[in-house]
Amino acid sequence: MSHRSYIPGDETRLMTIQRYIAQEERMHPEATGEFSTLLRNLALAAKIVSREVRRAGLVNILGRATTTNVSGDDVKKLDVFANAMIINALESGGQLCVMASEENETVIPIPEEFPCGKYAMLFDPLDGSSNIEANVTIGTVFSIFRRVSGGCRGTDEDVVQPGIKQVAAGYIMYGSSTIMVFTTGNGVQGFTLDPTIGSFLLSHENMRIPKKGNIYSVNEGNRLFWDEGFRRYIEYLQASDSTDGRPYKSRYVGSMVADVHRTILYGGIFAYPGDRQNPQGKLRLMYEANPMAFLVEKAGGRATDGSRRILEIVPTDVHQRVPVFLGSFEDVTLAEEFIAGKH
Ligand code: AHM
Ligand code: MG
Question: What pTM was computed for the model?
């Protein structure tokens, strides 16, 4: 793997997000700087959310760092806080025409008092909600499109575009360290937050997902509701055959960001299939599946809904759900074959 680690004290290798973005921009003389500013503002919001996540268990004792109120009752839930923080950090920058969030039923307009710009952003402010209280890894997911509607203030049209049109996508994972992983369509880069200097430093350069792995990641509690093809696929992975790495290991955090991050690094498959109870699965196309699909493809993997490339799905609703199978190219291809009844 070509992951380059940040070695403390080795200043010659220090690449902050700011430097990286500036460097990318120099390669595109037509760039206006709007996009770089957007990513910088996002990184700033990520740092603030990260700080709050790190203090999560202390909030009722000490109060949230950004509120004056220390009475636990008034402290907003962490996901609501993250949502407000991201909106706050990005709405006034002048790069966005509209936003959409998992937390908001309708699109989030850019207030009239702020300038508007040529990008639209969707995000899930704090994904993995069932893990928040348990001190388990959670994350923020984002997806950025170019504005396609006529006016400067965007509309639904700008946030309901096929994933293939994304200009950037990524996630921030609040795990044992905080890492921001993103692609602007040209490789996948990971920057780990050094909390002592407050900067994201390039730690995972040009991430590539192995062609095949030996881990599957799915909520097996839903097994009884799965389609026959997918059930047989998982049984196949559980069967023993030392020539091709079976039985696979099972790993499931229940936070998509963590499960996808591990899948990109180690390979294998992450799935949230549709089933008899929920034919479209659980995950949301626009701010969960699409950005992850874009990253996984740019890292050399594959992401489908069982038969179609996720990025090619033409969306109709900002909150629509989609079955998800993503990860190593060979693993996802085999899953699709089982689903299609070929095995
Ligand atoms: P959330 O947006 O309410 O946090 O739900 C999304 C999360 C994903 O992070 C994760 O992959 C999935 O839900 C886990 O669902 P389940 O608990 O059904 O396995
Ligand atoms: Mg979510």
Answer: 0.93
